[in-house]
Amino acid sequence: MDKWGSLVVLLGILLVFFLEVKGTTLVEDGDPISQQEKDRVLELPGQFFNVSFAHYAGYVTVDEEAGRALFYWFFEAVDDPSSKPLVLWLNG
C-alpha cells in the first residue's frame, strides 16, 4: 500500500474510533437513522444542481467541557456504497 493509501486507512480508523467513543451517546439518545439524516448535506451554497450520491458533514465532540470538536465529511460511494466508503477528514 502506498503512502496515501496508508494515510486514508489510518484516518478512517481514527474516524471510526472517535465515532464509537463519542458518538455512542448520540445513537443511544435516538434512532440512528434520524441521527444520520440530521448530518446529511442536502445543498451547498453556490451549487445549483443535485448530486447523485449521499454525503454527510458534522462535528464529533472531543472535549465537551472545553468545547472542542472535530469536523468530518463523509461521502458515500456511488457504486455499492456498503463496500466502498470514502472519508475526507478535515482539521483546522
UniProtKB/TrEMBL annotation:
<feature type="signal peptide">
    <location>
        <begin position="1"/>
        <end position="23"/>
    </location>
</feature>
<dbReference type="GO" id="GO:0006508">
    <property type="term" value="P:proteolysis"/>
</dbReference>
<dbReference type="InterPro" id="IPR029058">
    <property type="entry name" value="AB_hydrolase_fold"/>
</dbReference>
<protein>
    <submittedName>
        <fullName>Uncharacterized protein</fullName>
    </submittedName>
</protein>
<comment type="similarity">
    <text>Belongs to the peptidase S10 family.</text>
</comment>
<keyword id="KW-0732">Signal</keyword>
<dbReference type="Pfam" id="PF00450">
    <property type="entry name" value="Peptidase_S10"/>
</dbReference>
<dbReference type="InterPro" id="IPR001563">
    <property type="entry name" value="Peptidase_S10"/>
</dbReference>
<dbReference type="GO" id="GO:0004185">
    <property type="term" value="F:serine-type carboxypeptidase activity"/>
</dbReference>
